[in-house]
Amino acid sequence: MAEGIIIKAISGFYYVQNDMGLYQCRGRGLFRKKNIKPLVGDNVQFEAENKEEGYVNQVFERKNELVRPPIANIDQAFLVFSAQEPALSTAMLDRFLVHMEAMDIEAVIVVNKMDLTTTDFLHPYKNVYEKAGYPFHIVSSRDGTGVENLLPYLTDKLSMVAGESGVGKSTLLNQLIPSLDLETAEVSERLKRGKHTTRHLELMPCNSGYIADTPGFSSLDFEKIDEEDLDICFPELKEIMPDCKFRGCTHRKEPGCAVKQAVDEGEIAEYRYEHYKQFFEELVQQRRY
Fold this sequence. Notes:
The chain has helices at 30-33, 90-102, 119-131, 151-154, 169-176, 235-240, 258-264, 270-288; strands spanning 2-10, 13-18, 21-27, 43-48, 54-59, 65-66, 71-72, 76-82, 106-112, 136-138, 158-162, 202-206, 209-213. It is α/β, with parallel strands linked by helices. The protein folds into three domains: 2-61, CATH 2.40.50.140; 66-213, Rossmann fold (3-Layer(aba) Sandwich); 227-288, Probable gtpase engc, domain 3 (Ribonucleotide Reductase Protein R1, domain 1, Orthogonal Bundle), CATH 1.10.40. This is Small ribosomal subunit biogenesis GTPase RsgA.
């Protein structure tokens, strides 16, 4: 018996990596009976007589699990957005951040394509998100500017790169790991969207850890979040909410709300608060149906 990590899963085969190499494995039949599906990122016990014919016998307990993309045990996520083409969407960024907070995954914000705009345009956003506790990096994956600042985050961690299509995730990974040579695609001029270039989910070794490229997202549904817990997924709200007059304050219409006061005084960015209210209503509607 040996232990390793699943770095990719294709057509019923699980590719397990450890210090001895890469092993092609199948899952044991009992997994189906127990409704267990091994995922990329799983730490597993396996047996193999050779590198081509192995079996995964046990999936160890997961620290977290994402449904889309199907991946487990993520330590941190690089949330990649472009400054332009497509333009930076704080609503989509906040949606991603809520998901990461709910899954207890550290988030590093990366705004790509700085060559298409000015850093002055991005600094107000940088100030807001850094104040909320998120690292915020402005880079250009086309020429590698600023990419070296991301490398320290990768050491000994399982990371994923996530973001909408066309923001330059694959180009960024090519800069981080020059040997990858991932396929990239230009953004469609008509739709201002990128083509999907990532074919399957795979962990790639980088800086004593692993990093995963993930397919582009067009939307994220709140599946495992209750509206009562939404405020703790906004760090700046979580910090102030104990000062609200009423326990269980939803920070929308209640009197004596410390969060609304902080918004009025400019301590919390108004667009972050508006997104909180928007997501809250979305969760209420979702529960009704």
